[in-house]
Amino acid sequence: MILPIVAYGDPVLKKKGKDITQEYPNLDALLENMFETMHNACGVGLAAPQIGLPIRLFLVDTSPFAEDEDLTAEDQKALKDFKRIFINAKIIKEEGDEWAFNEGCLSIPDVREDVFRQPKITVEYVDESFTRHTETFDGLIARVIQHEYDHIEGVLFTDKLSSLKKRLIKGKLTNISKGKINVDYRMRFPDQKKKR
């Protein structure tokens, strides 16, 4: 089932998510719905707060990035095959010199800005079977994980912008929160409490 994506301005996007257990109700159905919602909106990641749930859960599927012809064949293969569920994740290490990449967000449509992040991360998390993992990721995969991880910490990519950039996009953000935007996927807008 395709769920509405919560738009910028909804308080759930600023809440730090809570850990969940294996007993979380209908987790399998939730994960299936989240993948369907993300793919329908042409996203590469989706966090539970973006569908209105303040829990520490996000998923990533970087296969759309694999079609970028500027990437090496090795990078394309890594991105094409990367599909993962992260539950109760904690980034335990970030390494390397920060680099800029133009990011967007399904909760903030039509806004894209350069965000600086470190290129290499180590993450502790459990998967959908609640098996514990500690893994290191780099490059675009690390970036997508960092973006989604921020969501479960109550942080949006726009929070990482300079005050000048924030002022320049303030009108766009206000319009998004009021539902004054055209998107081709279902959204829930905080100021109008309406669904599309």
Written overview of the protein:
It is a single chain. The protein is an alpha+beta fold. It has a single domain, classed as Alpha-Beta Complex (Peptide Deformylase). Helix content is about 25%, strand content about 30%. The chain has a five-stranded antiparallel sheet with strand order 2-3-4-7-8, with helices on both faces. A hairpin with a 2-residue loop joins strand 5 and strand 6. The longest helix has 15 residues. It is globular and about 40 Å long. The chain starts with a strand and ends with a strand. The model has no long low-confidence stretch (mean pLDDT about 95).
Strand order in the sheet with the most strands? 2-3-4-7-8
Q: Spell out the CATH superfamily.
A: Peptide deformylase
Which ranges are low-confidence, i.e. pLDDT below 50, for 5 or more consecutive residues? none
Q: Span from first to last CA?
A: 14 Å
Number of strands: 10
**Taking all residues together, what is the mean pLDDT?**
94
Main sheet: strands, sense, barrel: 5 strands, antiparallel
Instruction: Return Rg in Å.
Output: 16 Å
From the spread of the alpha carbons, the general shape counts as globular
